[in-house]
Here is the input.
Amino acid sequence: MTEPIYSYTLPPAAHWSLTVRKGMLLKLSDLQGGANLAMMMYNPDNLLERYNAPDTLKCQHTFKLTQGNCLYSDMGRIFCSIIEDHHGWHETVCGNINADMIKERWGGLNYQQARNEWQQNGLGSFLVELTKYGLNERDLGSNLNFFSKVTADDQGNLSLAPNSSAAGTSVSLRFEMDTLVIMHSCPHPLNTTESYPRKPVLCEFYNAETVYDNDLCMNSCPENGRGFENNRLYHMGLR
Here is the structure.
């Protein structure tokens, strides 16, 4: 892979947002191991259209997300495709961590107490970024959690698989339409480590290669073929 067009290391317990254009590739890398990168996606031209976790899982007949999967909007279009993945399991059902959960688990140090070492929460992080675009808590849905694998016991209780993401693990997203990306690097809601985890994530941007008819993501299931067709009609202006 060539040198990235732009790169940014998202610090631990931090948040960021930007519009990623169609035809761009975003490579996310877990620099130290054990990271969690939470993400929501919106159509910057129509903020009512946003990432839909149930449809993403249902139409691809899966519980986990990995290479070959597409990430759907609630209009049946594809925001982006996972074209490469060295983790193998990213989840989108466990949601987000909030301030009460942080306080109960790790004491909840605020910025006045701890300055840059404060224990930021995921909900607050998302809301800070959403307000920049006129959005609020009502606009949140089930988010993605990259680099986080969850397992279920015999009773169906979910838990976070420890050490599932090693240092250097990466996942690459090819954007199939312009997408407002909201992200944070706060802990996964099922993380029960003894101390508040602080894990950075490297974000690198490239120009994606041309999508051909034999594309893995397009052909991984019939539903994805229809999703790409919906995108084609959208970009023709037939909405």
